[in-house]
Design brief:
There is one protein chain. The chain contains 6 helices and 2 strands; from the N terminus they run ααααββαα.
């Protein structure tokens, strides 16, 4: 009798404990669902651009909801064409190109964004130019392409300056790849970039074939090449002076 009564008490306690766990889990689920519904209704009232109102409406059930996403808006091929207001116009107003002084005041993140803006603008202008050629008409304000190209070149120059300055502080090397000025067998001086080989230089036949010196019999030809270059430069300078003199005479008359 004592054993049966103790077993009954144990079963009763187990059932009560099971009921308590079931009730607590149900309450927690209801609280989570209520909090999620409040959060969804708050997002729906604010009309956030990051969510879809049809999915986050207060009346939607928990199973029909989807997670938040931050997908950017995708545009079509219209970005390769100019604004519709500029179609058919002979001239389009545009600003001056970016100067190096202005670009040096920008941060790296701003330069990164500006690079893609200029790239998109260049692609758009090239598309407009090609379309004008196809229709055999004049492109409106073709100087815009040159302005964008100048801005891109100056932006690359500023980025290169920053990379060089950082490399000088870290490694003391001005070039991204170390090297040295060397002379080939024809007497030309060029920048030789160092390379890594799997074998030593005295065992490397490919490296031994390179000649980093100028033979003595090449030196007379080097002087002749220098004389030829100086004569051509003097001839161009004389021609430029004569042209300027003729233009002054023509303008005076």
């Amino acid at each position: 009798m004592a054993s049966s009564s103790s077993a009954g008490r144990v079963l009763t306690l187990c059932k009560q404990f099971q009921n308590v766990l079931r009730i607590s889990s149900t309450i927690n689920t209801q609280k989570c669902a209520a909090n999620l519904t409040k959060f969804q209704s708050h997002l729906y009232r604010e009309k956030s651009p990051l969510v879809a109102p049809c999915w986050f409406s207060p009346s939607s059930s928990l199973g029909q909801c989807r997670a938040l996403h931050t997908t950017i808006s995708r545009k079509g091929l219209e970005e390769f064409y100019d604004f519709p207001d500029n179609w058919g116009e002979t001239t389009v107003k545009s600003g001056a190109p970016w100067t190096a002084k202005q670009l040096r005041t920008k941060s790296n993140e701003e330069l990164h964004k500006l690079w893609y803006v200029l790239l998109k603008e260049k692609n758009m202008l090239l598309t407009v130019e090609q379309e004008a050629k196809r229709q055999r008409v004049q492109m409106p304000s073709p100087e815009r392409i040159r302005k964008v190209e100048r801005s891109i070149i100056r932006l690359e120059t500023v980025v290169t300056e920053r990379e060089t300055a950082l490399r000088l502080l870290q490694t003391g090397q001005e070039k991204g790849r170390p090297g040295a000025w060397r002379k080939n067998i024809f007497g030309y001086i060029y920048w030789y970039r160092f390379k890594e080989y799997a074998i030593p230089w005295y065992m490397n036949k490919r490296y031994k074939r390179k000649k980093f010196y100028t033979p003595k019999f090449v030196q007379p030809y080097m002087r002749l090449r220098l004389e030829k270059y100086l004569r051509e430069r003097a001839r161009k300078a004389t021609l430029e002076k004569e042209t300027q003199a003729k233009l002054k005479e023509f303008s005076a008359s």
